[in-house]
Design a protein that fits this description.
Elements: H1 3-17, H2 27-52, E1 67-69, E2 79-92, E3 95-114, E4 117-129, H3 135-147, E5 151-157, E6 162-165, H4 168-189, H5 199-214, H6 217-223, H7 225-230, E7 237-239, E8 241-247, E9 250-258, E10 272-281, E11 287-296, E12 302-312, E13 317-330
Antiparallel strand pairs: 1-7, 2-3, 2-13, 3-4, 4-5, 5-6, 8-9, 9-10, 10-11, 11-12, 12-13
Helix pairs in contact: 1-3, 1-5, 3-4, 4-5
Length: about 325
């Protein structure tokens, strides 16, 4: 590869990835987020159908322990610490290659509780990437480190259903500031770049990309797909047991169960679990399997979440897995 091509690739990465907050590790991840968003809607629809498919005449006589209700019984000052990671792997024959991986720690604290819902605060820390030696990886990791510690305020309703990001304007402004500082640092460390690309034009392009990605409350809320994932089933009620539903070419299997789950923390809390599989095709007709595995504490706080997308392409399988695991809980 020529030096000119390398510079072009570097700045292409700069423009694209400086616009992404901590959670956006790659184009693959953005595409995954859209798939997750679509399939989360689908799985919630199917599970709602599963609940409605139960014998309606007997609904009033169903015992309380025959359904799993995901309700957030949160309290002010509740604090949960989690670890988040994402891995993308390609499988060709018997060979498996990790294409990229990344993650971070984060904490969620309840700052306010009313009869209408909850206000919570998320803070990220310790970001990491497997490709931190590449230009894209270095810049994305550096941006993530600059954003670490930023308070992200969001809300849920009284059931714990995720509502959206509250301080989105502040986050948008912070993103612009982080990117501006990062560009200034890069040009300071490599002054020869001034002769290769006008710094003002680069900043202008970055600002335009940031506006497209983060220029509204809805856009910024969509970037926090891991929060949507964390609270996806809150407000839902599902019959205990397992069932399979077929709809519009998709097959859904789900399992809901209650009882203590194995845990090294010696927790005596009653917990419950939701597991679902969707088998179908994505928007491009590629056979795809989606797996969601949730475990909750009895007060509705997520204990662990695993979401997996398995795409069966013509020449390979692409497996993307996002995991969120509880680390510590305090009141």
């Amino acid at each position: 590869m020529s030096g000119k091509t390398k510079r072009k690739t570097f700045f292409s990465c700069s423009i694209k990835f400086l616009s992404l907050p901590l959670y956006c590790f790659s184009n693959n991840y953005i595409q995954l987020k859209m798939k997750m968003k679509t399939m989360l809607c689908a799985v919630l629809l199917f599970l709602s159908m599963a609940a409605q498919a139960q014998n309606q005449e007997a609904a009033d006589s169903v015992a309380k322990d025959s359904v799993v209700r995901v309700i957030g019984w949160f309290c002010k000052t509740d604090t949960l610490e989690y670890n988040y990671s994402m891995v993308v792997a390609e499988v060709v024959g018997t060979d498996t290659t990790v294409v990229e991986a990344g993650g971070n720690d984060f904490s969620i604290c309840v700052t306010d509780s009313t009869k209408k819902g909850y206000t919570l605060e998320l803070v990220n820390s310790n970001p990491w990437r497997s490709d931190s030696t590449s230009a894209k990886g270095r810049m994305t990791l550096e941006a993530a480190r600059m954003a670490a510690g930023t308070k992200v305020r969001f809300s849920t309703d009284e059931m714990g259903v995720f509502q959206g990001i509250i301080n989105w304007k502040e986050l948008y402004k912070n993103a612009l500031d982080y990117q501006d500082k990062l560009v200034n640092r890069i040009y300071y460390e490599h002054p020869a770049l001034y002769a290769r690309q006008n710094i003002s034009e680069l900043k202008k392009q970055i600002k335009q990309n940031t506006e497209e990605l983060m220029g509204s409350k809805e856009k910024i809320t969509n970037l926090f797909n891991h929060l949507k994932l964390l609270f996806a089933f809150h407000g839902k009620q599902l019959p205990v047991g397992e069932s399979t539903i077929n709809m519009e070419g998709n097959s859904l299997y789900y399992l809901a169960r209650m009882g203590a789950l194995e845990d090294e923390s010696d927790s005596n809390e009653n917990e419950y679990q939701l597991y679902s599989e969707i088998t179908g095709k994505d928007d491009e007709g590629v056979p795809t399997h989606y797996y969601y595995d949730y475990a909750y504490f009895d007060d509705g706080w997520p204990r662990s979440v695993t979401a997996t997308v398995d795409e069966e392409k013509a020449d390979k399988r692409v497996i993307t897995q996002m995991t969120i695991n509880w680390v510590r809980k305090a009141w």
